[in-house]
């Protein structure tokens, strides 16, 4: 039922309707639960309870919760508004003044709505016609519309704003019928995690002393969506895919999954964070689409087994990312060959939820690995980086690596403009061929006194002698001990 209602009704609506149906429609009167023991209130004089709340706590325990709490989805998206309406009644023959004296968070507020007798009678009559007064939706659409019509006719008045309570009057009982209403506690999900919200409510009869009640709600603030991957049969909470390495003419593919506790329908868009990476067919992604039922059930079982969420995801979407060392596009005279530069590859993509501007509506995924291609390092580096290590900076520091071509006739040279920082000294020297393949010795030197601190965004670049040169980038690492000279 929750999944059916959620696209149309707010959390407050569902809870409010359940309150009304559960309590107000009982001929025997409200069945107040244990946490509603009115003796818990703080009498400021003679103990007469002006306003009775049917519950004071909206806190899920997942064990014996009353129906109105079981129906409540405590998940709140970061940056979104949440609320819980607390049902009350005035059963006295005098009006009651009510005021919210304070809240425990600047993110919280409160408003109030009275339920008129004609409105309630009309709602009951329609429920009887639909034959679903307790939510057994024999006619789901008609019942849903009736709930919405009832809730939309409530007139809400602020009772706490700008840090101060506003006094409101609750009319007396009429012809033996109590005056019912809602006090709605409102707040905003500020950051991920449990969020506890409370308000102190003071009510009093004419010529009487105030009586204080505390209403409380606890929500779970969650992101708009979460990104997972699968490694074999295991779900992983990660937005990074490391494909290790890719050789000549090889390609690989992986899938990212996006799921949400709060959104039944996700409208997602995926784009490269760097515009320069757009249009290269060697790294591509699909746009998100709904995952299969089997994939959804697999995720739900994983989350339940690990007890990672209190409720099941509302939705699951997926998109693929493919990395190819080289791609041929077109035919004949129009044929073009695209190749990735040899060396470390990092591509970042933004996954954005369209139509929202709140926190948590955008996440990044990262794809990384090594492109081996036509040149391999045979000695001096294990991961494609040239590591000069730590130095006092008082003398030159040099690192030498050996390179070999993986195809005959290939030659390479240094791209001087792509030596960063420019004070690095780079030398590329030929070595004895291995069969019909060339070898080189590449040495990189950090001059004495040139660096203070740590090298950042440093690299050297070689290029092949092909008609369309291919770039080969090697990151360079170095740091001076004690900040250098």
Low-confidence stretches: 1-16, 18-40, 132-138
Global geometry: elongated
CA gyration radius, whole angstroms: 33 Å
| Mean pLDDT score | 83
Helix content: 10-25%
Structural class: mainly beta
Number of strands: 33
Largest sheet report: 7 strands, mixed
Tally of alpha and pi helices: 6
Note the beta-strand portion: 35-45%
* Separation, N- and C-terminal Cα atoms: 70 Å
Write a concise keyword list for the protein shown above.
seven-stranded mixed β-sheet; six-stranded antiparallel β-sheet; mainly beta; elongated; 6 helices; 485 residues
What can you tell me about this protein's structure?
This protein has helices at residues 2-5, 11-24, 67-70, 117-130, 140-152, 293-306, and strands at residues 42-43, 52-53, 57-58, 75-77, 81-90, 96-103, 109-115, 156-161, 164-165, 168-170, 179-188, 193-204, 211-222, 226-231, 234-236, 240-246, 251-260, 268-272, 283-285, 289-290, 315-324, 326-329, 336-339, 343-353, 362-371, 375-379, 386-391, 397-405, 412-414, 425-434, 437-446, 459-464, 471-480. The protein is mostly beta strands. The strands form seven sheets. Strands 1, 3, 4, 6, 10, 12 and 13 form a seven-stranded mixed β-sheet that branches. The chain has a six-stranded antiparallel β-sheet with strand order 2-5-11-7-8-9. The relative contact order is 0.11.
